[in-house]
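For reproducibility, we list the full input for the adenosine-5'-diphosphate complex.
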Amino acid sequence: MFKKILIANRGEIAVRIIRTCRILGIKTVAVYSEADQHAVHVYEADESYLLGGARVAESYLKIEKIIEIAKRSKTEAIHPGYGLLSENAEFARRCEEAGLVFIGPSSEVISVMGSKIEARKQMEKAGVPVVPGITRSLANEEEAINAAEKLGYPVILKASAGGGGIGMQVVQNADELRKTFEGNQKRAADFFGNGDLFIEKYLKNPRHIEIQILADLFGNTVYLWERECSVQRRHQKVLEEAPSAFLDESTRQKMGEAAVMAAKSIGYQSAGTVEFLVDEEKNFYFLEMNTRLQVEHPVTEEITGLDLVEQQLRIAAGEPLGFHQREVKRDGHAIEVRIYAEDPRTFFPSPGTIKELFLPDGEGIRNEVGVSRQSVVTPFYDPMIAKLIAKGITRVEAIERMQEALSHYKVTGIKTNIPLLLQVVKHEAFRNGNTTTDFIAKYLQVKK
Ligand code: ADP
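The corresponding predicted structure, in tokenized form, follows.
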């Protein structure tokens, strides 16, 4: 096992990775920006190094500097967390070249899966069902209209390099497509450095259900069941749970096997997530693969009893998986909510200084937090400041515990989305398991 690793991230995920390292006796090196000098992850790590200015381009995205610090501090491996450089193939390649272990899959695999078009091609080849669509870059609006007519409207126009719910647009007809195509192409080029667009059929009220997989360096690949992430706002996840209230055993197994097949077909190693959309008839379609640890990994940890960061570290250190598929347990029900520093009326980020922070506790409650009292939430980074996870024997128990915990959660000095989260968990449709991706838009109106 490694003796020392560098964590190229910040916030709750950096703190969470440090926790597992401490259990395993691994020393940790934190990196931080000028705005994060007093951030929790800096205090939690064994060593910490300043990267540069507050903006991510001046700090957390500085590949050269991060590698130099890793070498200087004599670390053996780098954990990229999620977001930031975690799916940057160039970063993984530079780590490989510098003789540092990148805790994740190979740079080639990141590169293939980082392109939604390439990923679809690979999955089609491997026989994994993909969302009906046109698997090539569309040169212009005429090509897009021809393609859309073959699929039938509505369609969703997507940036091949897009992510985080950004770079997608639902299009109802040829007129709309004609008007928006060029603008989307330009935006994709500006935002992601790649203007390739493709289209998929826009599925009506699907569910977002994803499969967590683990693959070691010896060809052993297992799936750790599913997470349902249908509660979303503007195509971004808000609440996730495991297991899904919708799946039956046979579909669960088929999806798990398809995810393993997907991972094997590209020579995947490390923890990864194969995302699917599932329609009302329980047909499932490959959406994309995330080649990193997901924000919502704790719900899988809660039901399987596994520590996914530990598994990533063991795999990266060259250990074989310590268990077989049939030994992966599934016990109870877990729900996670993402706590954002945002105005619940406008959904705009709400930067400021946290005055009070009271974290709820109790049976089945887990907190993942990247801030403390007096922490300054700046506009420079993702506004997600914490996650709250509730586990119960049944889904009902997990919901009750989540509602109780949320109603005692206290953050002052900034605004948070806690009122919205409470509305979700109290809602009858959610309680009945009727959570399709339009849940928030359809049911919720946050009070002023
Ligand atoms: P990103 O990489 O930006 O997260 P995804 O392709 O993973 O984008 O999609 C994010 C969400 O957008 C999905 O969970 C779903 O709610 C919605 N979505 C994406 N593609 C489709 C589609 N073809 N039909 C219906 N909804 C979709």
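The radius of gyration is 21 Å. The chain has three domains: 4-103, 132-201, 207-443. Both points were considered when choosing residues for closer inspection.
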